[in-house]
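In response to a reviewer's request, we include the raw inputs and outputs for one of the modeled complexes. The two entities were modeled together in a single run.
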Amino acid sequence: MDTANISSSPIDIAGHSGSMTGHGISSPTGMKRRKTDIHIDDTPPPPPPPPRLLDYEPIIGQAVLDELRYLAEALQGKSVKMVNSTAMGGGVAEMLNSLVPLIVELGVVTHWDVITGGNDFFEITKAFHNALHGGEYHLTRKTQEIFLQNNDQNRKRIQFDEDVIVIHDPQPAALISERDARNAKWVWRCHIDLSNPNAEVWSFLKPMVERFDAAIFSSQSFAQRLSVPQYLFYPCIDALSEKNKELDESYIQQICDDYGIDRSRPVVTQISRFDRLKDPLGVVKAYQMAKKYVDLQLVLAGGSASDDPEGAQVLAEVEDAAANDPDIIILNLPPWSGLQINALQRASTIIVQKSLREGFGLTVTEALWKSKPTIASAVGGIPNQVIHKLTGALVHSVEGCAYQIRYLLTHPDHARQLGKNGHEHVKENFLMTTNVKRWLLLLRFLLGAKEK
Amino acid sequence: MKESGNFGQREAKKPFYFNTSSHLLRIGQEKATTLSELLHALHTCSSDSIFQHTFRTLQEHHFIREGFSNDFAHWAFSACNEPGLAERLAGLDVREYTDVEDIRHKIEEIVAGYIEANPASRERRSREPFYFCASEALVLPTPFVARSIQQFVEDLARVSIHSIHHHFIEARLRLKLSSNDFSQWLEEEDLPEASAQLNRIDIYTATLEDVRRQIILVVKHALA
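The model returned the following structure tokens for the whole complex.
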């Protein structure tokens, strides 16, 4: 990868930069071991080097890859700056780690800066995040001052010499105050669900957002009525990441052996945090209802609950609900278990995502990409991915989930067709390369770049 | 008419330049939670919105052979539980239209007619809103230029599915003819039967890859 163009307070895309925050798990005792000994490093491994464009050719084909190059031709030498609040950890940083090198490789000079701030600032932005998801919050004058002061310090520290400045999420939104001093286009990329924001916080942020040239949302339903053009960029997965790349059959089998999964019998899996909104107890109930008719195992695999008291409680409740059923396998994995999650998904007969509330639901995207028949709740961004009876099964209840498990396990041809359609749906709409295409198009429209 | 011998190798009267189009999705201001709101929004939304929810839907779901002809039909079925309306909307074939405004009027007519016949459905709330979006398109050249019919067949197999959609489906809005770029060119290259046959390919019961294969078969057959 040509890292020469990635600079300033700068993020090394291989992930070796400073100003990063760690994850909650620090000890192997954070892992729940229910069945057998599980061998996962207790610290995150160094990230693999990012893929190059050519690596995607076997996945999307040369013609589609070439289209990215045609799109980028008129953007040669143009520059973009991405600004967000963390270099590592979280979906935005993960996405930028894949996206930025690909845009750079296509000839668009791309810089990535991360804002800095004190604990008080990040406590406020965390509270803003929750409030914008609809939580209660009282916005004080002091809070506003801290938010604006920290943004102003970053504004003075960061250079804004690029043609397009992209601000990710609310934390750096006040950097827009730099707009008047520059001749650049400014874009606000909102990754969070703004459909039901706390009125006080949104009233504070909205005037800033309306100073941008455009805003981008992850779902139609997340958008707000704004005076600036709004675009829809679906979240995406990287087909070459550890979580999604093809795996050797021997590795998948090894993971199943490690976790006590019998692949000669159907395996139904939900991958998600032990969080009430993911309804793991509902999944156990659906499994128990389906089990009266079909033989199956249930795998519930998710993130550690060590830093989340409620998560630990939910995990305990799930274990209680599972009682002594040897066919329910509960795996509490650290966040760097991408390969293991990938293997579990590939070993599954059906994948379930029975969330009560959801953002976009990238675990659904991952399941569809692996051509797995997928049963998911009709919440958040899931209906964009699961088109009922065409790319998967949408459900609204435990009973519906149980029925779909029974139906798909006894109608394998239909299940296979859903999986096949789901894979194609992701390939067309939810892959990183499609995201690159959207960014190139937006840059073309914003900059009015003509063909060379 | 077709000559005997190496007709496919003969230099074309004029080359066929393969282009492709890319689309960016803009979120519109209109939103509908009932059929009456849908009808109102259908009247006020931009023509780019109508294009997005009819022509573009087909492209975004090009891998499906059944049940996904346009977003309005899908919403009527899945969010409104109105299968009768969904069937009527799904019966709309974008290839019968050379102007997006005509499609708009047809959809309005179908929805208005349904509401009139089923007044209880007018204000019934849908499970999910219909969010109007619009497509912003950019047409791009590709390096593929067919200078003979044989080369045209070879290039058809290599261009992206987006290019096929651009020339075969979107083209009628540009041409203002009930035809497509491929048929137009084949007609000019003295293959009128192949030209006509392409317009009979059913795009709603085939994936775009199926459509690509069928186009290639028709042209190859014409050369045989």
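As requested, we also summarize the result in words. The first strand of chain A starts at residue 79 and ends at 84. The radius of gyration of chain A is 22 Å.
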